[in-house]
């Protein structure tokens, strides 16, 4: 079976380091293994509009920003097809057929949808389109026959819902669609990077993100203001590393060679953690080290982004070409879906019989 990799991001803002460790880094690594026959990266503008109907301009402006973030991270347009969701009407059509295979109560039970409804105060008035986005996401995935979706663990309920739709479709209309599996980051700290304020999720509306495009001084200010262990008041107090944002970031980003370069008193993260737990290690020392780590990790990304910012017409062409390629694939799947459902009325003269 063909190995097909697909993911997407809502263009509601620039991408941040949570996106990076949770999924983008993995996508680039998977791309560079050369093990996939096809790789699709989707800018999910139609999904972004499900809770931004009144702000289409915000979504529009972030299309190029997200494309730049992708290219900055090392997504290579020669290996990966980058495309814009709403420019592929087949995805909307597929969503409409899938809607009949899912019950309202099933979507209501989806934990990610539940959490997002709460987050947006939608309890009393959920837009129908927003409610249906898990179904539309199943269309995104299956239209490209994706077998693997590298994403954060918050996407697992979406994948589960997608697999249910695939099974139901195949059961009713015959074997047509492929079931996808999620690829989670191996590093636990990358599963859910907290915000710099220690809140569980990095989110633009909370103002607690470090963006991939942040300048060095902004990164430094953010790192130095990060929440740490509230019980570690004095340097000599024993400290907690577990659940401590600064150490979670170090778990996600630090490499042994950074110790030799920036903090040679310690040989590895374990040693640093032990000292912190014992007491005698101040937050400022740890934050200064984290700042060096973040600067080292983000500098090449920011530089590549600046390079692509000088070549916007080329980025536009990449999106246009990618969307054309993607549309051809989705359209082929739609033909098969219509055939399986026997609604391809003009493909033969069966209607006459
Ligand atoms: N829901 C994803 C997010 O919020 C975006 C998305 C849309 C997606 N379609 C997808 C992710 C298909 C993976 C596969 O980031």
Cofactors and ligands: tryptophan
Taking pLDDT < 50 over at least 5 consecutive residues as the criterion, the unreliable ranges are none
Mean model confidence by pLDDT: 95
Structural class based on helices, strands and sheet pairing: mainly alpha
Number of strands: 5
**Rg of Cα set:** 22 Å
Strand percentage lies at: 5-15%
Helix content: 40-55%
Largest sheet, spatial ordering of strands: 1-2-3
Span between termini: 37 Å
Count of alpha/pi helices: 16
Question: Main beta sheet: strand number and arrangement?
Answer: 3 strands, parallel
Keywords:
353 residues; mainly alpha; three-stranded parallel beta sheet; two-stranded parallel sheet; 16 helices; elongated; binds tryptophan
Describe the structure.
This protein is mainly alpha-helical and 353 residues long. Helices cover 55% and strands 6% of the residues. The protein contains 16 helices and five strands. The strands form two sheets. Strands 1-2-3 form a three-stranded parallel β-sheet. Strands 4-5 form a two-stranded parallel ribbon. α9 (156-173) links the parallel β4 (148-150) and β5 (181-183). α4 packs across α8 (133-143). The model has no long low-confidence stretch (mean pLDDT 95). The structure holds tryptophan. The site of tryptophan (TRP) has 13 residues, from β1 and α8.
